[in-house]
Amino acid sequence: MTEKSVITVFLLDDHEVVRRGVHELLSAEDGMEVVGEAGTAAEALARIPAVRPDVAVLDVRLPDGSGVEVCREIRSSQPGIACLMLTSYADDEALFDAIMAGASGYVLKDIRASDLVGAVRDVAGGRSLLDPVATARVLERLRGGGERQQGRLADLTDQEKRILDLIGEGLTNRQIGDRLHLAEKTVKNYVSSLLAKLGMQRRTQAAAYVARLRSGGGTNPDTGAGPGPSGSRPPGN
Predict the structure, then answer these.
(1) Which residues make Cβ contacts (< 8 Å) with residue 49, sequence separation at least 6?
(2) What b/e readout covers 178-209, taking b as 16+ CB neighbours within 10 angstroms?
(3) Each residue's pLDDT expressed in tens, for the chain with a length of 237 residues
(4) Which of 66, 14, 62, 39 is nearest to 203 (CA)?
(5) d(CA 71, CA 208)
(6) Which phi and psi angles does 117 have, rounded to 5°?
(7) Is 128 in contact with 109 (CB distance < 8 Å)?
(8) Nearest-angstrom CA–CA distance, 226 and 14
(9) Residues with Cβ < 8 Å from 215, sequence gap 6 or more?
(10) Is 82 strand, coil or helix?
């Protein structure tokens, strides 16, 4: 992302007082404009594409989901938007998920006002604020778990592999059900089963795993085909 005269920002936080405070802080800065706000993940996903900000400042914990999920969806559909995660908790698991979702930064809410302004400017300019040590820790987790997960992939049924492929495309359970002509509850059961077999807890981990297989030319241990866990595109793609 190139530097520009006015940096546009979208704010997502379920606490109105926090949103107002950050809004006032950023709006007081020369060359910054807050173009939208939301208090839930659903509102953010509906509003962000319409205003197309340079930076989305996203709270991690929300009443209807996670700012990390919002980040993943936005980065998938509009990669030009930089996402800065803002949270009250120093959570390694959330940091891991944020990195895998494509966040450009992860800062705590006790950050100094001037540092938050600087963080927004940095990610708007295409720079990363992710701690190199934390990023290295995430990459080590990926390397350490990759071989084990590749072996576990062989334990998935063909249907589970198809569903894993579609998770990697960012589809929801309902969308997967529509694609494969399955009930949403049936898809949910398949997702729970495949996550357990792969030793994962979150579907974001599964999505990141599929992305890694595709980018690295990963193969199906049963068939040798690739990329992607099913070895081929699911019907209807």
Answers:
(1) 74, 77, 78
(2) ebbebeeeebeebbebbbebbebebbbbbbbb
(3) 445 589 999 999 999 999 999 999 999 999 999 999 999 999 999 999 999 999 999 999 899 988 988 998 898 888 899 999 998 876 667 777 787 788 998 888 888 999 999 999 999 999 988 766 666 666 666 555 555 555 567 788 999 999 998 998 888 899 999 999 999 999 999 999 888 888 887 888 888 778 777 765 444 333 333 445 554 444 333
(4) 66
(5) 13
(6) -60, -45
(7) no
(8) 42
(9) none
(10) strand
- Output the six-digit token pair for 180: 């494969």
Burial grade of 149 (CB within 10 A; 0-12, 13-18, 19 or more): buried
Beta strands (DSSP E) in the chain are: 7-12, 32-38, 55-59, 61-62, 65-66, 82-87, 105-108
Lay out the sheet containing 55-59: strands in order across: 32-38, 7-12, 55-59, 82-87, 105-108
- Please choose, from the candidates 66, 85, 69, the residue with its C-alpha nearest in 3D space to the C-alpha of residue 77: 69
Alpha-carbon span 138 to 160, nearest angstrom:
26
Token pair recorded at residue 233: 């595109």
CB atoms within 10 A of CB 65: 15
Q: Which two tokens stand for residue 15?
A: 């606490």
CA angle (191, 197, 198) in 5-degree steps: 90
Gap between the Cα atoms of 203 and 72, Å rounded? 11
pLDDT of residue 236: 39
